[in-house]
Specification:
The protein is an all-alpha fold and 450 residues long. It has 18 helices and no strands. The two termini are 27 Å apart.
Length: 450
Amino acid sequence: MSVPTDTPHRSGLVVVGLCFLTIVFDGYDLIVYGSAVPGLLAEPGWGLGPAQAGAIGSYALVGMLIGALSAGALTDVVGRRRIMLAGITWFSALMVACALAPSPWLLGLFRFLAGLGLGGVIPSAIALTVEYAPRGRRQLYNALMFVGYSVGGVLAAVCALALAADHGWRPLMAIGAAPLVIVLPLAWRFLPESVGYLMGKGRYDEARRLARRYGIAIDPVRQETSATATARTDPGGPTALFRDGRLAATLLFGLASFCGLLLVYGLNTWLPQLMREAGYPLGSALTFLLVLNLGAIVGTLVASVLADRFGPKPVTVTAFLLAALCLVVLSQRVGTGLLFAAVGVAGLGSVGTQILVNGYVAVHYPAPIRATALGWALGVGRAGAIVGPLFGGWVLASGIGFEWNFYGFAVPALAGALLVGLVPRAGRTDHASAVGDSRAHEATKEGMTT
């Protein structure tokens, strides 16, 4: 008996899983720098201080910003699959170069170049995840895919605990090349091209065959592709964020994203060294980085559920406030149990707050400008990501006392809570659009379950 041609032969979750693995190593390569900082500061002949180490930590984030912007343009030309394969190969090879760097300035250069590949894969990973995830569960699977960043942080902390004390920072960087032998062969074999990209290029037969193989409904993809093409030719699209009563919300969301990403990259870069300054041995200091990222994983999932029930605004404000509170706790001499609990909740207050801000932006703006609003918030936020490692280095180099290292990061957490709290309610038109999107989403889910 022959199999009908419209029967899916492969699950789209394979694509989601490959994107997840890519983001795991994306997170590892970024967060492992924080595990390497104590070793870099002690590297013989380098003479690095905290300010210089913070600058090197920011170079990869500058590269990520450029890589993300460049990938958006290149994707339209070469496709998402090729961008993913090239990005994985690029950042993995550059991590080997980082491990072999003979001087601080070459390490900084290699980190910057690695950032180009790290930033390049993120937009394609998001797009492929949303496209191949089960329809009606796109946000869930996108959130689960992004948890890979914190899983990479856990992996970085575990590897550092096993290797850093006896072997230094270079093996930690070299592990960043693992995607060449783990992810790249799987992606080369199983990662498909975007159906939307193929349709946008007029390759309709290929798009239909791929849609049948993965069980993707072709009509919604065609509609999304048409809507995207229309949006790109509409010069008034981005300006809609700053008119019709949206100016205040747009500015506040951008600044809140700045604070959120400053916390994410600042703490992941400097937490081990901050804990060493507080008197903890290297092993214990690295354990705190492990707990920070475990807290981010669990806390983000719990907070997302609460945001669906109580709304994103109060939950996001609470997460920022908890981050500030926990940072103050970390500045004090408290018991080990309370200290670990504070670090875990700080994971929610850093990584979790940024995911919550993104979700708040997504439901605040109407569908036609939602992607533009997210691009604005994350673009401004990326500046905070660049400032985070620099900020931590400046505070640490100031020598004003280890307590102020934590107070310094508590300030942007409090600012983030204030900024989100000041976001005005969406206008009547925007609210109606959001309700309509929600009802359409529910209708889609009902259609899938009947």
